[in-house]
Amino acid sequence: MRVILKKDMDNLGAFGDVVKVAPGYARNYLIPQGIAAEASRSNLRQFEAEKEAHLRKLQAKRDKAESLKARLDAVSLSFTRKTSEEEKLFGSVTVHDIEEGLKAQGFEFERKDIVLDEPIKSLGEHAVKIKLHPGVSAEIKVSVLKEE
């Protein structure tokens, strides 16, 4: 069955793509969830009219993300942690810590937007990526200092 995607789907396609999927997947999940519509002639015509408005909204969101990226690239967070005599951290700096640090500086992000492969377990400066929009991400500096 051919459907028009109304939202971006990671493994399926982007907004506006006409894709072929299993009929059951389309009827039972994509169409009821509002993710897709059947690719009939009338739906294709209607979608073409809506596509420009959606692209304008998407560009506005991207522009907003770009301006936020410029502000975030200047952000630096600093955390102090207890260390052993060999300067190994007791504990770590996690996504939750970074989220709280950003919140204290006036930035609101969900934890899933902060990309940290594993908690930071060493002293020094580390770069942490924050997803703002598809294709737009900022990088902040996180410093981990020894607690005196």
Features:
148 residues; alpha+beta; Ribosomal Protein L9, domain 1; Ribosomal Protein L9, domain 2; 2 domains; four-stranded mixed beta sheet
Structure characterization notes:
The structure is a single chain. By secondary structure, the protein is of the alpha+beta class. The strands form 2 sheets. It has a 4-stranded mixed β-sheet with strand order 4-7-6-5. A 3-stranded antiparallel β-sheet has the order 2-1-3, sandwiched between helices. It has 3 helices and 7 strands, in the order ββαβαβαβββ. The longest helix has about 30 residues, at about 40-70. The protein has 2 domains: about 1-60, Ribosomal protein L9, N-terminal domain (Ribosomal Protein L9, domain 1); about 70-145, Ribosomal Protein L9, domain 2, CATH 3.10.430.100. It has helices at about 25-30, 40-70, 95-105; strands at about 1-5, 20, 35-40, 75-80, 115, 125-135, 135-145. It is elongated.
List the helices and strands and how they pair.
Elements: E1 2-5, E2 18-20, H1 23-30, E3 36-38, H2 41-72, E4 76-81, H3 95-104, E5 114-115, E6 124-133, E7 136-146
Parallel strand pairs: 4-7
Antiparallel strand pairs: 1-2, 1-3, 5-6, 6-7
CATH topology of the largest domain: Ribosomal Protein L9, domain 2
Element pattern in H and E: EEHEHEHEEE
Low-confidence stretches: none
Number of helices: 3
Radius of gyration: 22 Å
Distance between the terminal alpha carbons, to the nearest Å?
65 Å
Shape: elongated
Strand content: 25-35%
Helix content bin: 25-40%
* Number of beta strands: 7
| Class from helix and strand fractions | alpha+beta
The level-1 CATH class of the largest domain = Alpha Beta
